[in-house]
Design brief:
The protein contains 11 helices and 3 strands; from the N terminus they run αααααααααβαββα. The chain is mainly α and 244 residues long.
């Protein structure tokens, strides 16, 4: 136990602190600081180990604020003291539905799993075929043209070129003439033609008034041209996104 003098001073200090509860926060803070200062002074004067320990405990109680209910609950947050774990979907289902799922016939289960495997393999095979087709078409494009397509990607222009070529492939006409005067845009047009495995040649024509114009003539290599499901524009977008 602490000596009577220490207890008497401590009781006086507690009375001061209790009476300051009706005041504002600033005055209460000053009262707490005075109380801590008084405890520190008393700790330096007391030589008894038990009394010093008692004063140190009181000092720590004043330095550390009291915890509220939420903070106390946070001390026991890890399971099994914390919040209850949310119920699983199996627990939330009705027992009858869960029993039907659990007691399914083994033959039906094997048939269902086999059907799922077949459907997944078909989807994967279709995706692989599309990937191989678009990569094969992309490698038909000249190396310099591929660099130009990746460096200066113009999706609207390339999409317009592709729409014209796809319509031309489905039609029965033999030659498609496109008038493109810009050299870079004409290079992109040749790249799109190579992507769809078509022949493109640019010729210079002279019109009235001695003005020359360049016309790109596009021809089919054969009648059985297979259009890839993934267009060049979408392929370049996926390449920029990091998918390819």
């Amino acid at each position: 136990m602490a000596p009577p003098e220490v207890l008497r001073k401590d009781l006086i200090m507690l009375d001061l602190f209790v009476n300051s509860k009706g005041e504002n926060v600033k005055s209460r803070g000053i009262a707490i600081e005075k109380k801590i200062e008084l405890l520190e002074n008393l700790a330096g004067k007391v030589s008894n180990r038990r009394s010093r320990r008692w004063l140190n405990d009181r000092l720590l109680m004043e330095l550390v604020p009291r915890l509220n209910a939420q903070e106390i609950r946070g001390l026991f947050a890890p399971p099994p003291f914390g919040d209850d774990s949310p119920p699983s979907p199996f627990c939330m289902t009705y027992s009858r539905e869960w029993d039907n799922f659990r007691s399914i016939d083994m033959d039906k289960e094997a048939t269902m799993m086999e059907a799922l495997k077949v459907s997944v393999s078909k989807q994967k095979r279709g995706a692989d075929n599309d990937k191989v087709a678009v990569l094969t078409a992309w490698h038909r494009v000249d190396c310099q043209t591929r660099k130009a397509l990746r460096r200066s990607f113009l999706p609207e222009l390339i999409n317009n070129y592709e729409e014209c070529l796809r319509i031309f492939i489905k039609e029965s006409s033999d030659v498609l003439e496109v008038c493109v005067q810009d050299p870079f845009q004409r290079l992109l047009l040749h790249g799109v033609c190579e992507f769809y495995n078509m022949v493109s040649v640019t010729v210079v024509t002279q019109s009235e008034g001695s003005e020359t114009a360049k016309i790109t003539k596009i021809k089919k290599k054969g009648d059985d041209i297979k259009l890839p499901n993934i267009t060049l524009c979408n392929f370049l977008k996926m390449s920029k996104a990091g998918i390819w």
